[in-house]
Amino acid sequence: MTPRSERPSTRKHPDAISAPAAAPAASRERRVVGVSWRLLIACAPFGPRLPDTTVAGAIARGVQDGGLPEPDVCALPLPNENGEDGEHIRRVLHELDFDERMRHARAVVVGVARLEERTLAGSVTFEIATRARQGGVPAYAVTAENALDSFDARILDLQLILQARSRAALTAMGRELARIV
Fold first, then answer.
1. Residue 62 CB partners (closer than 8 Å, separation 6+)
2. For residue range 96-124, what is the model confidence (pLDDT) as tens digits?
3. Helix (H) or strand (E) holding 142
4. CATH superfamily of 36-180
5. Lowest-pLDDT choice from 1-5, 48-52, 129-133, 172-176
6. Angle at 45 between CA 138 and CA 82, to 5 degrees
7. What's the CA gap between 49 and 166, in Å, rounded?
8. DSSP code of 4?
9. Per-domain residue ranges for the chain?
10. Residue 84: which pLDDT band, with cuts at 50, 70 and 90?
11. How far is CA 163 from the centre of its chain?
12. Which of helix, strand or coil describes residue 145?
């Protein structure tokens, strides 16, 4: 056995710089210079049993399970998707620094309890989809109930609308988004 004083030191010098560990093959394949793979997930409550943070967290977990990096989660503490006025929604998005966060995202995922044509104008979905379209960022939606026809979805420029009503289904939709995006 080699005496302790003759063994090479395994302690790192405080100024030593470690080389980064090699990225897993899946993440290496998805790297494109200048393009972020991080999603922005913006969710309103799906009702009293699924608050905004739960909805966003379930989708985020699925996105990560699907191999994408941890998303930027933006909980939208709006009491009712259909009951807020446009000015209030714009103020909330401004306070959350939404536009800056969106510009750094690969895509935006908006989560709302219900999508329907008669309540789109002035809704958080309409505001986020409009900002994403104007910013050149693809937008996707996850909802418990989709009452939009294909024309309304096209007006919003939503790439895809997925439906989920439970925490487990929201996580599954996050995995699906990771596969598609």
1. 170, 171, 172, 173, 174, 175, 176, 177, 178
2. 999 999 999 999 999 999 999 887 888 89
3. strand 139-146
4. Glycerate kinase; domain 1 (3.40.50.10350)
5. 1-5
6. 80
7. 9
8. G
9. 36-180
10. low
11. 15
12. strand
